[in-house]
UniProtKB/TrEMBL annotation:
Record organism: Blautia segnis
Domain DUF3502: 410-477
Protein name: ABC transporter substrate-binding protein
The keyword Signal is annotated on this UniProt entry: yes
Leader sequence residues: 1-23
Length: 480
């Protein structure tokens, strides 16, 4: 499924599954409990209720629990629910501040629960993939099995490349890419050669950095184990070079006008030839399905496995009344294909039907599916069937991709931000002023980058770096 990306500022306006207020987990009868699941998605309230009822028929027998699924992409609403103490049982905390949830006591420690009540999933998880789930030597998040590594580069319309006689495999970097964009501008005046991936200049990163915390804390070369010196993305030569490219390309008319402030959430489906993308096996098929054209990619950065892709997004809130049952439910979602498929895709014959039993599904003809959205948000992507048009072998290819990727030096390190949140907030305010305009060529890098760094330093960037370096050094020393 297409991975839709939206900025937090507009999520509330776009949310389609918000007509609910999660309640306390309650006993359905003397033996069966009812568990509230909150997952990142856009399934309609009506469909969530139908799927919850059908799924409960299975979970009632397997673990003595019924489920109520809520889907939302409204990060602010979910954050409010968590911080205000709403009684939830199993939460997909995508896009939430994980460190903040832990430090404020909103989550249960999961070490014992995971060992005792999730044996099937635990047997499937590699030790390496649990490192980033811990804060202060306690597990607070649960592992996710999907794209644990990412390459990056660009996605381009294949029909246009074919008409221009260009092979995507020949595009090795920014200079090659520039030459293609120039030809697109000359031959297709109704298209913008390069567009954002989502609203407000949204852009996937195509850098070799090991991004530890939101661009403010990085290692300049994530592929070099000897590079352990903390800096910011904005001080790396690679990012400065990128901004210079984009500024030049903007002068040449190769970028979508006003890209940094665009309100178009999917310009690649309408007016764009290319955008920057993370790349994993199956990405071209998903992207093509979601954007109405056939797309091909060119890779600029090799696969890297880092903490960001392995940090885990599922957790059990501190207010959960039945944490043992919540963990048993997560165990099923991770390890039981029947349960996982229904949770992610809905009811067979209603929301999906089999094309190849056990491996390939499709939405039934004439049906507008209002349930299935973000399959990656569920605990185990690789246990799910694929949608028609994608080779079932992509699941195995993704496993091999993850295994073959380079390991970031800081893999497993999670920055504790509790003592530097004031500085982070101040630096984020500075970022809002400079980062996106620089990355879309709206500001002259020669003038703006020094100003950007100066204002970051005034906001406390070096304090952040000192604390991050101390924590990273301690973490790396423990790994020896």
């Amino acid at each position: 499924m297409k991975r839709k990306k939206m900025m937090a500022a507009v999520l509330a306006a776009l949310m389609t599954c918000s007509a609910f207020t999660p309640a306390v987990a309650v006993k359905a009868d003397d033996d069966v409990v009812k568990l509230k699941i909150w997952v990142f998605g856009e399934g309609s309230t009506e469909e969530c209720e139908k799927v919850s009822e059908a799924l409960s028929e299975i979970t009632r027998e397997k673990i003595g629990a019924e489920v109520e699924i809520y889907q939302t992409i409204d990060t602010e609403k979910l954050n409010l629910a968590m911080t205000s103490g709403e009684k939830l049982d199993l939460v997909c905390a995508h896009n939430l501040d994980r460190s903040g949830l832990v430090s404020s006591g909103m989550l249960l420690p999961l070490d014992d629960l995971y060992t005792e009540y999730a044996p099937d999933a635990a047997a499937m998880v590699k030790e390496e993939d649990t490192k980033a789930l811990y804060f202060d030597d306690q597990m607070y998040f649960l592992p996710s099995n999907g794209d644990k590594a990412r390459a990056s580069g660009v996605m381009m319309r294949k029909d246009i490349l074919d008409e221009l006689g260009i092979n995507a495999d020949d595009i090795k970097g920014m200079d090659d890419f520039h030459d293609v964009l120039v030809k697109v501008k000359e031959n297709y005046p109704d298209l913008y050669p390069l567009v954002p991936s989502w609203v407000g200049g949204g852009m996937q990163k195509t850098f070799h950095i090991d991004d530890i915390y939101n661009g403010l804390v990085v290692l300049e070369n994530g592929f070099d184990p000897s590079d352990t010196t903390i800096t910011s993305q904005y001080e790396t030569q690679e990012w400065k070079d990128f901004c210079n490219y984009m500024y030049q390309w903007n002068q040449e008319g190769l970028l979508m006008p006003d890209a940094a402030t665009s309100t178009d959430n999917s310009p690649m489906s309408t007016v764009g030839f290319a955008d920057y993308e993370n790349l994993i096996p199956g990405k071209e098929a998903d992207f093509s399905k979601g954007n109405g054209h056939e797309f091909v990619s060119a890779q600029f950065v090799e696969p890297l496995k880092d903490t960001e892709r392995n940090k885990g997004i599922w957790c059990i809130p501190a207010g959960c009344e039945y944490p043992e049952k919540a963990m048993e439910l997560w165990n099923l979602l991770y390890s039981d294909k029947e349960v996982a498929t229904m949770a992610a895709y809905g009811i067979e014959g209603v929301n999906y039907e089999w094309v190849e039993e056990g491996s390939v599904v499709k939405i039934p003809d004439g049906v507008k599916d209002t349930y299935t959205t973000y399959e990656w948000a569920w605990p185990n992507l690789n246990i799910l069937p694929v949608f028609e048009g994608k080779d079932p072998a992509v699941r195995q290819e993704l496993e091999e991709f993850n295994d073959s990727a380079a390991r970031a030096t800081s893999l497993g390190f999670v920055l504790d931000t509790s003592t530097i949140m004031n500085e982070i907030t101040a630096c984020n305010n500075v970022k809002q002023k400079y980062e996106t305009p620089l990355q879309w060529g709206a500001l002259d890098p020669e003038e703006a980058i020094p100003e950007f760094i100066e204002e970051l330093e005034a906001a406390g960037l070096r304090t952040i770096h000192e604390e991050a370096q101390r924590q990273l050094d301690e973490y790396l020393a423990k790994q020896k």
